[in-house]
Amino acid sequence: MKARGSISVIFFFLIGMFLIAAPTLASAGEGAGGVSDVGMTVNPSDMPDVSADEAVTPQSVPMMYSDDVVQLKQQMQGAGNLPKRGRSGAEGDETGVNDGFGISVTSDAPTLSTNFAGISYTGWYPPDPIMAVGPSHVLVMVNSSLAIYNKGGGAAVSTSTLANWFSNVSPGTTMIFDPKCAYDHWNQRYVLLALALNTTSSQSYYLISVSQTNNPTGLWWNWKLDAKLNGSTNTNNWADYPQIGFDSSTSGAIYITSNQFAFGGGFQYSKLRILKKSQLYAGSSLTWYDFWNKKNSNGSAVFTWQPVQTMSSTTGEWLVNTVSSSSGNAVTLWTVTNPTSATPTLTRVATVKVRAYSAPPDGKQKGGAELIDTGDCRLYNAVFQNNHVYTTTTEAYKWGDNTTESAIRYLKLNTSTKKAVLDKTYGGNNAYYSYPAINVDSSDNIYLVFSRYSSNEYGCVRFSGRKTTDTKMQGSASLKAGEAYYVRKDSQNRNRWGDYSGIARDPSTGDIWLYGEYAKPSNQWGTWIGKTKF
Predict the structure, then answer these.
(1) Does 252 have pLDDT greater than 90?
(2) Are residues 269 and 260 in contact, defined by beta-carbon separation less than 8 angstroms?
(3) For residue 429, what pLDDT band results from cuts at 50, 70 and 90?
(4) What is the mean predicted confidence (pLDDT) over 126-133?
(5) Cα(438)–Cα(155) distance, rounded to whole angstroms?
(6) Contact 28/292 with Cβ under 8 angstroms?
(7) What is the pLDDT of residue 246?
(8) Is the Cβ–Cβ distance between 159 and 120 less than 8 Å?
(9) Residue 28: what pLDDT?
(10) In this structure, are strands 124-125 and 59-60 parallel, antiparallel, or unpaired?
């Protein structure tokens, strides 16, 4: 039986890179979009000061998997069908497939200098916590609200539901979800992104908001862009799981990606939409350029394109994706050049080989038998600094016993040599790690924030770091401990958690800010904010 299990896993690894369904409604393409309305002005002080819509019945938001992910997650659940790959004992990096056990933690994780409560349960799940940090404020978002805090903590200086925030662009949809945000330090502007969806009327929009200064409590501009359009051509596809990136040019671009699914159907392709900073930051009407249905070198469709948030000067923009969200042994690097021209150039520059990965099993939690959904092998965020792209995902991993757990994989990719400088798995025996986010400080020290749970631990948010002088990621520290057993199931019977965590670098001090989810009583979630630095 053990031999059969091993053969089965090897088979999944070999075919995993080809399992994402091929697009069915369109061939690979690119094209320029139409012209949007001018930006509609928003004043946070005019918003009703509420962080949740009290009328909302508990409601889940989409995070779409491919069928192969579901099958592989089930196969990996608690199974003894992976070889023992790491050490048992202290939390930290794995030692490599053939290096044996006995890794020791180099030192304690970086310490918190500030921490305080974020947005409380809103009725939507999972929360999708995300953050952006400017000179004086911390902005956080969840499904389906936002809040602005002074950096010293305390009560939020401004709160709003996303429905209120975007009401002036009249999305006319039944759901606003998957919030994303960033602080473009090259131009000193906050950029917000959310998706709007109405399955009854087959509407899907990107909702975009940009601050008019570096102060998020001042005026903003809002836009509604049709997410069904490929360039200017209409489709029957809606946007899921968006990402947002920016380049280092003050006259460059903002990069939005999403996974596109057919209304009433399956995955079609990933799409990249390029928006000019010059138009966004002037509040004018927007034009855009789209790329869609691009392929990895093995012919599989790109899934969850991650545009980087660019921390040091470079030409154009980098993007990265795993070659499969189920299993594989490579990631794909892309570049966009001349992004503000009439026809930007998108190039697949490298397939970077990494150690084999496969979708993680769901996680045990303290207090009951319901497992917590751990996601798949999509990349969860990406940053660029000093000729390297840093990114992270989750994977199935067996430490020192017969149980397969969910662990974090983090990568440092050299954009010159097109090779992985770091390719490490992080976690601990008998614990489940999920929804990581990664960032670096100006000295290239690495930081992770993530969720963790186990039979002895409620769902919580933790963080760790790795100095440039360290040989391993350090042991983790608590940002906020979980408080209770948690069950929030969606229509697919998944006990939803995540779908991501927030991390941002302070443009003024270089500190690293963290934002994540923890379990509260009555099957509710809470969020917590912290600041750290080596």
Answers:
(1) yes
(2) yes
(3) confident
(4) 98
(5) 27
(6) yes
(7) 98
(8) no
(9) 80
(10) parallel
Tokens of 198: 């109405």
User: How confident is the model over 472-503, as pLDDT tens digits?
Assistant: 999 999 999 999 999 999 999 999 999 999 99
Residue 343 scores a pLDDT above 90: yes
CA–CA separation, 330 vs 319, rounded Å?
14
**Alpha-helical regions (H) of 207-303:** 277-280
Distance CA 309, CA 446 (A): 15
pTM of the full predicted structure? 0.92
Bigger pLDDT: 69 or 175?
175
What gap in Å lies between CA 21 and CA 246, rounded to an integer?
29
Closest CA to 23 of 236, 319, 330: 236
Exposed/middle/buried for residue 177 (C-beta within 10 Å: 0-12, 13-18, 19+): buried
Alpha carbons 86 and 339: distance in angstroms, whole number: 43
Proportion of the chain above pLDDT 70, given as a percent: 88
With a CB cutoff of 8 Å and minimum separation 6, the contacts of 49 are 158, 159, 160
- Rounded CA gap, 280 and 271, in Å? 20
CA pair distance 455, 469, nearest whole angstrom: 34
- Does residue 166 surpass a pLDDT of 80? yes
Contact 314, 251 (CB under 8 A): no
Report residue 40 as tokens: 């509609």
* Least confident piece of the model among 108-117, 307-316, 343-352, 410-419: 108-117
The region that residue 212 occupies, defined by phi over 0 for left and psi between -120 and 50 for alpha, beta otherwise, is: alpha
Q: What is the CATH number of domain 2-532?
A: 2.130.10.10
- Residue 408 CB burial class (10 angstroms; 0-12, 13-18, ≥19): buried
d(CA 165, CA 155): 19
- Bridge-partner residues for 457, per DSSP? 454
CA 123 to CA 117: how far, in whole Å? 17
- Cα 150 to Cα 139: distance, rounded to the nearest angstrom: 9
> Rounded to whole angstroms, how far apart are CA atoms 204 and 226?
6
Alpha helical stretches, state H, 218-302: 277-280
Q: Name the band, by pLDDT with cuts 50, 70 and 90, for residue 17.
A: very low
Give the closest residue to 273 by CA, choosing from 260, 283, 288: 288
Q: Dump the DSSP string for 495-530.
A: B---S--EEEE-TTT--EEEEEEEEETTTEEEEEEE
Q: Give 53's pLDDT tier (boundaries 50, 70, 90).
A: low
Both tokens of 499, joined, read 């779908």
Average model confidence (pLDDT) across the chain? 89
Q: Report yes or no: 448 and 463 within 8 Å, Cβ to Cβ.
A: yes
Which amino acid, residue 50? V
Give the residue from 445, 441, 375, 384 showing the smallest Cα distance to 408: 375
Four-residue CA torsion sign, 445, 502, 205, 393: positive
Nearest Cα to 520, choosing from 477, 476, 462, 460?
A: 460
